[in-house]
Specification:
23% of the residues lie in helices and 32% in strands. By secondary structure, it is an alpha/beta fold. The longest helix is centred in the first third of the chain and has 27 residues, at 3-29.
Length: 386
């Protein structure tokens, strides 16, 4: 074969590959739009006495009752399915439709317990409207109690599901498809208002606080009905679930219920009380509103400013959660194995300590702590990525 012919064929092959890649990328970014309304579809399967649905319309469920279901999510590599646990408290009278979610990160146990506790307090016979709880969205991550979704797409991968919303039912990863299925066929069609519960991440002790955009009236109202000490008034990162809700016209925010991997039984009641306050405010359950953010003397910050480690070594923290700090205040020191001080860390801003590293050692570049601050981020400083 002549050289010119070989070159011509090679160029055409590379061009075809390039355009295939573009097409795949476009398909990946083009999420399947959910229909305006959907019907409840039962698969015919029953797991532990609970019926399985592949889509849900809570209007199809009997009022005045609690309904326990499994939602059929994405397939595993064996061809079986990941099932998501769903509780629907369908009020005897019409009203708002609320959705409570947890388990988007697999190491966040207090968020799940908070939602379970709220649902246990609801009596559908006395309710107006519907509350749907979706408890374990990132099932494979929860099975191993790790933050990210494990998959075997190109070798072993770990994906943060809370950067994937609203997902894509025809995406090129299991986590994108799971997000698309859950959002299109379960969450979005059944929700007027939503609360997406989280905790801090593994390796970080965290205070009780909210994340949400207070420019949205319902978001501000809901967040201020909790007796929490701090609010991060910020829309935060692209791809998080509460922003997917907001993009769909559904007000939502994220409560952060303490630390990962364990139940914070002292903190959970704060978030249960606040969630019940929200239901009372919107006329869904009877009773007087309890303590709110005003009672907690809430601190509202516009930014979360991280302090990153510059060295490896042993960490000694000099501040505690919810401590107010000032610029230049020393917050931690770091020693090497000889006990020599290799680094000292100071606060770059006025603010409130929202998170502290829980491990006693650190490599360079880890988040040592983050500060909720009402000032703009320091020029050149890295943004906090939880």
């Amino acid at each position: 074969m002549k050289t010119k012919t070989v070159v011509f064929l090679l160029v055409n092959l590379l061009t075809a590959i390039a355009f295939t890649g573009i097409g795949m990328a476009q398909a990946q970014s083009s999420a399947v739009a959910a229909p305006a309304s959907i019907s409840t579809v039962y698969t015919g399967d029953v797991i532990n006495g609970k019926k399985v649905v592949s889509s849900l319309n809570t209007s199809d469920l009997a009022p005045g009752k609690k309904h326990l279901l499994y939602f059929q999510g994405v397939q595993m590599s064996t061809g079986q399915y990941w099932y998501v646990s769903v509780i629907v408290a369908k009020g005897a009278k019409p009203g708002k439709r609320f959705t409570l979610t947890s388990g988007v990160h697999g190491d966040e146990m207090s968020s799940v317990h908070t939602v379970q506790t709220v649902m246990n307090q609801l009596n559908p016979a006395e309710m107006s409207g519907t509350v749907m709880a979706v408890l374990d969205i990132a099932r494979p991550a929860m099975e191993s109690m790790q933050r990210r979704w494990p998959s075997s797409g190109r070798g072993f991968e770990l994906t943060d599901m809370n950067r994937e919303w609203p997902g894509n039912e025809n995406g090129f990863s299991a986590v994108s498809r799971q997000a698309g299925l859950v959002f299109n066929r379960l969450l979005k069609p059944n929700t007027d208002l939503a609360i997406d519960f989280h905790t801090g991440t593994t390796g970080l002790d965290a205070a009780a606080f909210h994340i949400g955009d207070m420019r949205i009236p319902d978001v501000k109202t809901m967040m201020m009905l909790y007796p929490v000490p701090a609010i991060w008034d910020n829309p935060v990162y692209p791809g998080v679930l509460h922003n997917a809700y907001i993009d769909a016209g559904i007000p939502c925010f994220t409560p952060e219920v303490g630390v990962a991997r364990r139940l914070d039984l002292d903190m959970i009641p704060i978030f249960v009380e606040g969630t019940m306050n929200v239901f009372k405010h919107y006329g869904m359950v009877p009773g007087a509103i309890g303590r709110t953010a005003v009672d907690a003397n809430v601190y509202i910050g516009k930014n979360a400013i991280p302090v990153l480690t510059t060295h490896g070594g042993f960490i000694e923290l000099l501040v505690k959660l919810n401590t107010k700090v000032t610029p230049g205040q020393k917050v931690a020191i770091q020693r090497n194995a000889f006990g020599e001080v290799v680094a000292e860390y100071s606060s770059p801003v006025n603010g409130l300590i929202g998170g502290l590293r829980s491990d006693a050692t650190s490599e360079p570049g880890n988040v040592l702590l983050f500060i909720l601050a009402d000032a703009a981020p320091v020029s050149g400083a890295a943004p906090y990525s939880e």
